[in-house]
Amino acid sequence: MTRIIRHTLLSLVLTPQSGLSFTPSTDTLARRCITIHTRISPRRKNDNNKFATKPSSGAVVSTGSSKNDRSSSSGIRSSSRTHEVGEIPPCPKSLESRLEDSVDSLYQWFQGKSNILCLTGAGISTDSGIPDYRGHNGSYHKGHKPMIHDEFMRSHRMRQRYWGRAMVGWRDFVQATPNEGHIALAKLESMGKIGVTFEDSMEYYKPNCEESDLNWAFSAGYRKMTIITQNVDGLHIKAGGRRNHVTELHGRNDQLVCMNCGAYRCRHDFHNELDVLNANWLQEQQQQVLVVSKNTTKGLPNNKLRPDGDAFLPQQDFQSIQVPPCTDCSNNHDEQSQHPGFFKPDVVFFGDSVPKHRVNRCYAAVDASDGLLCIGSSLAVHSAYRFVQRAATKGIPIAILNVGETRAEVSGLDVLKVEAPTGPTLEALVAKFEKGKDYNSHSLKLTHL
């Protein structure tokens, strides 16, 4: 069915809540009017690319002068470099004595900036019980290899393996709660310390998507972005961040999409069906995994949980796992859907590419910023590192809050490196902004360390 959006609706110019008056340019309105007769499909179509196959010695370091990194890949590539495991970074707890200097350095870096964009990685969520890949207790150091896009797409056995391990790990993953780092970023946004505003464009919306078409039609002509996150745990949103201000670069792990018809499905509902279909198998696995352990908090020993939301299992035979097919495909008898499709988490697995409209949106946010703050990321994968490269090329100041060496340092980019635990540092930074010069580092509570 075709729905026509009246031209009069597109002529509305909204004023953001902040009081900023942003009037779309003539070019913006002209391009938006082109979309008013767009045919809106009742079902989401597939993306064109859907099937495309040493710790630093000081607490605060300014590294090198800018030079170009020679990586030319686009999206996340499954390469030996991507999964390289270098030196194990120090334990964040060992750096607590540097906290005051670290906070002071970040506080000074913030001065004179009004459009700071944040880029976060797995390191910000470790205090919530979700492991990272390359950190002090990173899963790569334990031999973990993440799911590869092509393996999931081509092999039913690999999908059985993924969903079997996810049945054990997903519940703990999704029950994780925001830590002080997530909460501090939400506070910094409410204080106006982070966030950028830039002109909206049709290029920043997913093509052939009803929701995106409507959002573009009713756009006020500007967008705001506070955080680009590599994480798929949704903790920035749970902490109070506005979903339309947080770009989840690699997608959402709580949502599934059919690889045949593009229909969405809630992952919670899918796992309920998985558990019923595989009740006996799941019970056997739980008896093996849920052992008495000092590390057990919600049932699953935290050394078994993986960053992807699955878990390590001693069981290697997953052939009996029954995976529910897409019911939309099963109920649709058109030629394209003779064989029901399978669901995949709506995330970018290693080897896949970040959708182009999402990348364009992030580039625009970087261009509009006057500072890029990278938090809890080694920047090893190009999908996120390219935004650091973009900032460096444009002369935008870059600060990195991370325990362990990052790709930016290895590449010789000119950055302010702050080697400190993310949660306590961000929490203390908020306190410093709130208290000003009366800030007292001795009053900080590092209860999570």
Briefly characterize the structure.
By secondary structure, this protein is α/β, with parallel strands linked by helices. The chain has helices at 7-10, 26-33, 99-110, 149-154, 156-174, 180-190, 210-217, 235-238, 267-277, 279-289, 327-331, 356-368, 382-393, 407-410, 422-435; strands at 60-63, 116-120, 196-199, 222-225, 227-229, 246-248, 251-258, 264-266, 343-347, 371-375, 398-401, 415-418. The strands form three sheets. The chain has a seven-stranded mixed beta sheet, with helices on both faces.
- Largest sheet: spatial strand order: 1-12-11-10-2-5-6
Which ranges are low-confidence, i.e. pLDDT below 50, for 5 or more consecutive residues? 1-58, 64-83, 135-143, 292-303, 437-449
How many alpha or pi helices? 15
For the sheet with most strands, the description reads: 7 strands, mixed
Look at the structure and give the mean pLDDT. Answer: 75
Residue share in β-strands? 5-15%
Question: Could you describe the 3D structure shown?
Answer:
The protein is of the alpha/beta class and 449 residues long. Helix content is 32%, strand content 12%. It has helices at residues 7-10, 26-33, 99-110, 149-154, 156-174, 180-190, 210-217, 235-238, 267-277, 279-289, 327-331, 356-368, 382-393, 407-410, 422-435, and strands at residues 60-63, 116-120, 196-199, 222-225, 227-229, 246-248, 251-258, 264-266, 343-347, 371-375, 398-401, 415-418. The strands form three sheets. A seven-stranded mixed beta sheet has the order 1-12-11-10-2-5-6, sandwiched between helices. It has a three-stranded antiparallel beta sheet with strand order 8-7-9. A two-stranded antiparallel ribbon has the order 3-4. α3 (99-110) packs across α15 (422-435) and α6 (180-190) runs parallel beside α15. The longest helix is centred in the middle third of the chain and has 19 residues, at 156-174. Mean pLDDT is 75; it is low at 1-58, 64-83, 135-143, 292-303 and 437-449.
